[in-house]
Amino acid sequence: MILDIKKIQTDFPILKKEIYGKPLIYLDNAATTQKPRSVVEKIEYGYYNVNANIHRGVHFLSQAATEAHEEARRYVQQFLNARSSNEIIFTRGTTEAINLIASSFTDECMSAGDEVILSVMEHHSNIVPWQIQAAKKGIVLKVIPINDWGELCLDEYRSLFTERTRLVSVTHMSNVLGTINPVKEMIEEAHAHDVPVLIDGAQSVPHMKVDVQELDAEFYVFSGHKIYGPTGIGVLYGKEEWLDRLPPYQGGGEMIATVSFEKTTFNELPFKFEAGTPDYIGSTALAEALRYVDGIGIDNIAAYEHRLLAYATERLNEIDNMRIFGQAADKGAVISFLVGDIHHYDLGMLLDRLGIAVRTGHHCAQLLMQRLGIEGTVRASFSFYNTEEEIDQLAAAIERLKGMF
Ligand code: PMP
């Protein structure tokens, strides 16, 4: 299917903005995506029409808000193809979801000396929560290395398993290299050792079909704001038997069944993990974002973005002294690069003056930067609302700016 990008762009009012008098070219989609009008309207609709605290009220509005929140949960369930809506926990985002698992899983399933396998390409969100647990509980982190193309070394991965391995926690797609990891194969390997797996889907869910039953990971997490939804809402998918087994992460209202000073009993799933008033407006807006993505079709999005990536790679490679980090055979629409010895920050700042938004720095992946032997990169990351013309302008701008150094 050929996407009508010009029409799609009109759904995103911010894309019409001018920055320093230049039309905005937004190439920072791996950090966060822009929002279609329908998502913002859903938020407004929620506050103006169905706003009341959920799950506690007998009155009309409270019941309507509860139903909207639970309907959103069912939409997420269907989007990920989870078995049950009990397996969908709303969190503040990927980071909170990983912290939840790091805390609850470590409490329930790990003791000093037990091991978690991570990879060198993880975002800090999938490193630091484990380091906190390592400092508290003496668990040990094992790290899968990458090859020079930016792909995980699977032989090394296999050799990291020991009888102390309790969990594998890896990203589906790197936010720096774009590498799409062979997570299905990695999950099978972990299961062969009876080890459960957590997949960080922050970068993958917006760009490819994710079917949690097919992947068979025990836990899968993502953020709403990276898939055209609002900030402050995200999802933890967990297999029901695992979520049942893990202790709550936070205590408060909603997550209890009964409370007395002698003993509190916890609510059933999914409420056990949603302490306090949930973001019931955010959840419905997230479902609206997923509906928007479904309207275009995730496979159409994947195919279009794949073409954009190929085109951008070709165009950027025409520039002298261009170094692209991440040449994996399976790669999503992210390009990290450096040009000659121009500092990434300088290039990013000058591109900004031309209306081109890219990200610079270590991208919350300092371990990876150390492995690559650099301090940071410039990163252009694409969405279905980007075009080849915008990539031409990025390439032309880099050529022009190069001349200034
Ligand atoms: N993991 C990856 C791979 C990411 O790219 C990001 C966001 N850059 C995160 C985790 C953290 O997501 P959030 O800040 O939305 O919690």
Beta-strand percentage? 15-25%
Biggest sheet strand order reads 4-10-9-8-7-5-6
How far apart the termini lie comes to 43 Å
Radius of gyration: 22 Å
The kinds of small molecule bound in this structure are: 4'-deoxy-4'-aminopyridoxal-5'-phosphate
Number of helices: 14
The average pLDDT is 97
Q: Poorly predicted ranges (pLDDT <50, ≥5 residues)?
A: none
Number of strands: 17
Q: Pairing-aware structural class of the strands and helices? A: alpha/beta
The biggest sheet, with number of strands, parallel, antiparallel or mixed sense and barrel status, is: 7 strands, mixed
Assign a percent range to the helix content.
Answer: 25-40%
Overall morphology:
globular
Question: What would you say this structure looks like, in words?
Answer:
The protein has 405 residues and is α/β, with parallel strands linked by helices. The chain has 14 helices and 17 strands. The chain has helices at residues 5-10, 37-49, 60-80, 94-109, 128-137, 154-159, 183-192, 212-215, 240-245, 280-296, 298-317, 344-353, 366-372, 388-402, and strands at residues 18-19, 22-23, 25-26, 88-91, 115-119, 140-144, 165-171, 197-200, 219-223, 234-238, 256-259, 264-266, 322-325, 334-339, 356-357, 359-361, 377-381. A seven-stranded mixed beta sheet has the order 4-10-9-8-7-5-6, sandwiched between helices. A hairpin with an 8-residue loop joins β13 and β14. α2 (37-49) runs antiparallel to α10 (280-296), α3 packs across α10 and α11 runs parallel beside α14. The longest helix has 21 residues, at 60-80. It is globular, with a radius of gyration of 22 Å. The two termini are 43 Å apart. Bound molecules: 4'-deoxy-4'-aminopyridoxal-5'-phosphate (PMP). 4'-deoxy-4'-aminopyridoxal-5'-phosphate (PMP) binds next to α4. Residues 93-95, 123, 125-126, 171, 175, 200, 202-203, 223, 364 line the site of 4'-deoxy-4'-aminopyridoxal-5'-phosphate.
